[in-house]
Protein: Glycosyltransferase
Amino acid sequence: MVKVSVIIPVYNVEPYLKQCMDSVVGQTLKDIEIICVDDGSTDNSLDILREYAAEDSRIQIIEQKNAGAGAARNNGMRYATGKYLSFLDSDDFFEPRMLEKAYDLAEKDQADFVAYKSDQYHTDKNQFVPVNWVIRENEIPPYHPFNHRQMTGNVFKVFVGWAWDKLFLKEFVDKYHLTFQEQRTSNDMLFVFSAVALAKKISVVPVVLAHQRRDAKDSLSKTRENSWDCFYHALTALRDKLREEGLYEELEKDYINYALHFSLWNYNTLSEPTKTKLKEKLKSEWFKELGIEGKNKEYFYIKQEFEQYQQIMGQIPEATKKENETMGFKQKLKRFLRKIVPVGRTYVDKKFKDQEKYIRKQFKEQERLIKLQQKNMEEMQKNLQKNLKEYIEQELVRRDNWAKMASETKRVADGRPVWVIKCPATEGEAKFRWGDYYYAVALQKYLERQNIYAIIDNRQDWGCDEGADVVLVLRGKYFYRPDRRNEKCLYIMWNISHPDMISKAEYELYDVVCVGSRHMAEELKDKISVPVVPLLQCTDTEIFCPEGETKKQYNGQYIFIGSTRGVMRDCVYWAAEAGVPLHVWGSGWYEMMPEHKDVVDSTFMPNEKLPALYRSAKVTLNDHWKDMLDNQIINNRIFDALACGLPVISDGCEEMKEIFPDAVLYYDTKEEFDACVKKVENDYEAVKAKALEQYDMIKKEYSFERRVEELLEIAEKYRK
Structure:
């Protein structure tokens, strides 16, 4: 299977065809097939295609009698074998990396289709003109992939209803039987807008990758005078498709608003006598058939469009009629005045008076707003002063405590070594939502069992120097600068997440750097001058273990714990789509998957409840952030779950597969994920047995108890 099938309908485009073909043949993505459908051309277009086919085996020519671009695209799809489908009109052309960029994003996001920007090209001026309406970026979410339920504007106006600025997954197209209408114009609207409504995953490449020629004499977009009714047939076909897929009720308002918009656009851009013919059809039949008739003004997003609809229907309100009558009298008065007063003076005087009234009105409104803003600012300033005073008082108390901390620490430690764990969690109740905080608590527990006096400093107390012997920095999301005034202190960084956020210069600030993978340690040790030690993530095997409390309601259930962080996490989406009994805890899921919100239990799962959940569930889903996977850092949820005997379905890296060769079910693609689910369902006893076998190995090699032993060895080796 090739990666992309490019389908090009060709009809009498001899002057432009070579530029079009060169842009496709020269794509940086080479694993493609190019299907050119000659739609009965009467010029030399077919001969040009044959020349290209003789030079490039990827090109396939299909000949048909003239039936239009929609029929040609449908014909081309019958021969397509690619994983993705791309369409290009034969007078337009692509950027060289178009297919590569769209394909890479589609694969990364497992998208149903990928859209990208385009501009307009004027041949006579050799000029590219930017357009900002092909993708309404302010109406799509800041993350991808997304679907129509996350769009904030009219679903049918976020993208333009043409196919050549999008890359479609063929499996998705086949599943929903998407085809082009076989009519002269508006033949791709049904295909594109059906895809927008049906797609579960849409992604966008926010750069110009295609160029639309705007002055091609034989362009299909210029034949609308002869095919003036095609838009109506496209709209009714779209409505019927939405009903067939059970989406019309949900999208009815967007559809009717778009139907009015597109009807008026066609009406306003036609010439006579076609325009009058269309007006009569709209008035007598089509507005009613499209669901527009009978709706009030408030139903429509754009009031001017509703007013034009009323004009076409002859439904001019009484107030508007009176205004027209008044305007008629004014016109008569103006003609009379012109006989005795110079035209310019009459016109200018009126304009001055109108402008004066407008300016006075604006000044009053501005004066009102300024007073309101001043009142709000005064209120905000009072609150700010109050809050600032409280904060300064609290901070002074905190910093006063810092000054006493060293002597107090020395007294309480009573001769024991002092370790300070710098934890990136925030202070207060919010710290209990940080996994890093529980990491620090576990380290503190096992350090104290080794006769170490251990203190946890959350982020607000990072400026405090307690006279420590060792400062252990849990480097995740936030930067910490070692306080070198304490000359006897050994500073150890343990990088447990976000490795891409750490620079070489930051590593050099420490005495020892520990990293969460052996692979990363090998890579890093030749790049920095300080010692690098592999120290993998781990779990507290006294808490996460096979024996203990369970939660029967989660028996036989799939679970996932983690927030969206603004992106759709594939394993969750695939599981929800597959219909497995799924429970999700984490923020952002209600907004990310409104169609599957029933699987979301809560935005947070308390850490103390995790072991019972892990002992009860059937399997947990897991994934890693890209920088973690690239650096082969295994997240601690793997160790937590397996220590409880819970099977795991996860993406993976070589280091993870060495540690857990058969205890974790691994996936990279949707097909592999589906195979993992199938194995769980068909052979669960064997899968569960493998998970239960891991506890002894984890306790020995990947427990906090073992990590503390290693940290003490490191401190002994590198102490000052």
